[in-house]
Amino acid sequence: MQNVQRPTAAFVGAAWVAMLIGAGAYLAGLFNSTMPLNEKGYYLTVLLYGLFSAVSLQKSVRDRMEGTPVTGMYFALCWISTLLALGLLGVGLFNATLAPSEKGFYAMAYILSLFAAVAVQKNVRDIAGGKEKTASTDTV
């Protein structure tokens, strides 16, 4: 296992704030929009799918980097899912009857949410790894 430096509290806080702002803005935009309920459901599902696939991809990449076995099939599915989530948002926004500024708002909030979710997951893993390392050295 490689030596992972514990993230600073400022970086951990910034990642959480970015994720809450991105997802919160996206969800507030959906809540306040005049689009039909089925369309709101589509965009909510795309957000949840994107967050899950991005975190799963980050975990798979990190596992491979640390030497933890990850099957090629799962790794490929993570990449496909992340790209598919981005594609679904893109197609949805392209075909939506929204103003260009609204389309840009949803796209930027979505990307911010996915990026921040990856950063949060990385921080959680780094912190957990630091605790495991500390616990193992304490018992020796």
UniProtKB/TrEMBL annotation:
Record bears the keyword Amino-acid biosynthesis: no
Gene Ontology biological process terms from the UniProt entry: DNA damage response
TM segment ranges: 9-29, 41-61, 73-98, 104-121
Keywords: Membrane, Transmembrane, Transmembrane helix
Name of a matching Pfam family: YiaAB
Ranges in coiled-coil conformation: none
Residues of the YiaAB two helix domain: 11-63, 74-126
Any single Gene Ontology cellular-component annotation: plasma membrane
Tagged with keyword 4Fe-4S: no
Superkingdom as given in the UniProt entry: Bacteria
Protein name as catalogued: Membrane protein
Organism: Pseudoduganella buxea
Gene symbol of the encoding locus: yiaA
